[in-house]
């Protein structure tokens, strides 16, 4: 055994050199691919996928070459047969890992959900910062980083808030019951269209929506920026403008009223004897 080990040392040395050379080639290949892909308009997620595939292909070739150096009788057919036998056990043991890996590849390939988008999925809302083969990094608006398995994003509906530059926002405005609704709608429309962040060219919708307990409610909808901050800023300005317009036009925005009705009662002692007297 000792003699066989000494005789195999040169083969192990050559195999280690092959692995080292594979590491160097993989690094330079990724840099070259970055230079070539960087000149294109390919999405960042696809660039990452392309770099990973290049690195993976080089490492597979390098490790196979090193294995042949150590075991000369090893062939590609025998290696594939060995991998096939263990693939079933490995697949069951690492089912979630492979699922996330395949989901990551499909997420990177499809055009939607790019890096920088604001998404919402299963109660998670934030900005996509990074997508790799197993997980996606989502930064919440409050600053926390959420590491989301790719399978969760692939198997569940994902709402992409910034898929377009603009989206529709809305707010409910109530007016008192003695208000002329046509006049109130005109005042609201002028106020909303006068806000800078509102895209008046896309139209402003004002619908009398509901008879509420203390008011008649209008549903007001407008178009503005698609990011959450743009939505909050436009909503703030719209509410301020509507309040100023209502005050200027002397239109009441009522708060909840409660009406108490009291029935007048007469004490029994003041009723007297109302019974009929019999002769």
UniProtKB/TrEMBL annotation:
Domain spans labelled Mechanosensitive ion channel MscS: 96-158
A cellular component annotation (GO) from this entry: plasma membrane
MF terms (GO), sorted A to Z: mechanosensitive monoatomic ion channel activity
Record keywords: Cell inner membrane, Cell membrane, Ion channel, Ion transport, Membrane, Transmembrane, Transmembrane helix, Transport
Xref: InterPro entries: LSM_dom_sf, MS_channel_C, MscS_archaea/bacteria_type, MscS_beta-dom_sf, MscS_channel_2nd, MscS_channel_C_sf, MscS_channel_TM-2
Transmembrane portions of the chain: 12-32, 53-70
Keyword DNA-binding carried by entry: no
Mechanosensitive ion channel MscS C-terminal domain residues: 171-253
Membrane association type: Multi-pass membrane protein
Compartment(s): Cell inner membrane; Cell membrane
Chief location: membrane
Pfam families membership: MS_channel_2nd, MS_channel_3rd
Subunit: Homoheptamer.
Family stated for the protein in its record: Belongs to the MscS (TC 1.A.23) family.
Biological role stated in the UniProt entry: Mechanosensitive channel that participates in the regulation of osmotic pressure changes within the cell, opening in response to stretch forces in the membrane lipid bilayer, without the need for other proteins. Contributes to normal resistance to hypoosmotic shock. Forms an ion channel of 1.0 nanosiemens conductance with a slight preference for anions.
Protein name: Small-conductance mechanosensitive channel
Record organism: Erythrobacter mangrovi
